[in-house]
């Protein structure tokens, strides 16, 4: 049932999403989001001439705080077919938590589509009402880039108010930051600088633990080599190869 609903709704809603909504869609994903983030840095900096400020944050307990009534109202704005709406309602309300009217399960295919539909309200607000040209989102992680720090500081409370009043969501208070790219911006597992990016330290530590836990199997090593190929990682690559005994 979940897969059938996803196949029916996904192509339609994909057309309503902004270009830089990057999670759980055909042709998009983490790597595409990273490429777009790098492209935004180049555009905002005018090829490293200007200082780039990045406001980034994520949503506190994202899946667990999706409000069922708000979600169903959003879906109903786009889908006139009552049978489909009833099916969506059954799936949404089948999730059991301490609050019967809030939350979607993590990892569920339909949930991933539904949270994109939910957050599309925020995406449209940021892009078209706040006129944030360099905005992108991957799941509950989002960033806005600008040369104007004051502008980012001004839109922060406006975005918080929209999330709270319209979607009953909140930014994670410990994940809000406004900083320059030159200082290193941690986004989607990588720390980004003006001319390169490096893997986040915690990700590197977890990677080596996993390689060791899986007895340094070649397929595990190759998987991580693929991951780090998306950044500046020659030294890290050599270390992984030695760890996996693939380097003489």
Could you explain how this protein is built, in words?
It is a single chain. The chain has 248 residues and is of the alpha+beta class. It folds into two domains: 1-187, Alpha-Beta Plaits, CATH 3.30.70; 201-245. The protein has nine helices and seven strands; from the N terminus they run ααβαααββαββββααα. A four-stranded antiparallel beta sheet has the order 2-3-1-4, sandwiched between helices. A three-stranded antiparallel beta sheet has the order 5-6-7. A hairpin with a 2-residue loop joins strand 2 and strand 3. It starts with a helix and ends in a 5-residue tail after the last helix. The model has no long low-confidence stretch (mean pLDDT 88). This is Reverse transcriptase domain-containing protein. Residues 1-192 form the Reverse transcriptase domain. InterPro entries: DNA/RNA_pol_sf, GrpII_Intron_Splice-Mob/Def, RT_dom.
Beta-strand portion reads 5-15%
**Class inferred from helices and paired strands:** alpha+beta
Cα shape: globular
- Spatial order of strands in the largest sheet: 2-3-1-4
| Mean model confidence by pLDDT | 88
Query: Remind me, CATH topology of the largest domain?
Result: Alpha-Beta Plaits
- Biggest sheet, in brief? 4 strands, antiparallel
What percentage of residues falls in helices of 4 or more residues?
A: 40-55%
- Can you count the beta strands? 7
Weakly predicted, low-confidence segments: none
The count of domains is: 2
CATH architectural name of the largest domain:
2-Layer Sandwich
Determine and state the CATH class of the largest domain: Alpha Beta
Q: Report how far apart the termini are.
A: 51 Å
Number of helices, where a helix is a run of at least 4 consecutive DSSP H or I residues = 9
- SSE sequence, one letter per element: HHEHHHEEHEEEEHHH
> What is the radius of gyration?
20 Å
Pfam families: RVT_1
Domain Reverse transcriptase: 1-192
Protein name: Reverse transcriptase domain-containing protein
């Amino acid at each position: 049932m979940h897969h059938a609903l996803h196949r029916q709704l996904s192509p339609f809603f994909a057309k309503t999403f902004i270009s830089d909504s990057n999670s759980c869609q055909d042709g998009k994903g983490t790597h595409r989001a990273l490429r777009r983030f790098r492209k935004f840095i180049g555009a905002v900096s005018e090829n490293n001439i200007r200082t780039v400020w990045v406001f980034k944050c994520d949503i506190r307990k994202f899946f667990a705080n999706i409000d069922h009534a708000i979600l169903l109202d959003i879906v109903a704005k786009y889908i006139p077919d009552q049978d489909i709406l009833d099916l969506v309602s059954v799936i949404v309300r089948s999730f059991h938590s301490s609050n019967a009217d809030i939350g979607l399960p993590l990892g569920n295919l339909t949930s991933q589509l539904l949270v994109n539909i939910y957050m599309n309200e925020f995406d449209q607000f940021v892009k078209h009402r706040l006129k944030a040209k360099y905005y992108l989102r991957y799941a509950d992680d989002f960033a806005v880039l600008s040369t104007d720090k004051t502008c980012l500081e001004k839109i922060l409370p406006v975005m918080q108010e929209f999330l709270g009043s319209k979607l009953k969501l909140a930014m994670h208070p410990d994940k809000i930051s406004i900083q320059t790219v030159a200082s290193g911006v941690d986004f989607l597992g990588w720390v980004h600088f003006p001319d390169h990016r490096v893997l986040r330290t915690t990700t590197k530590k977890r990677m080596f633990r996993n390689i060791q836990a899986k007895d340094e199997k070649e397929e595990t090593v190759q998987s991580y080599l693929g991951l780090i190929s998306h950044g500046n990682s020659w030294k890290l690559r050599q270390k992984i190869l030695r760890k996996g005994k693939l380097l003489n």
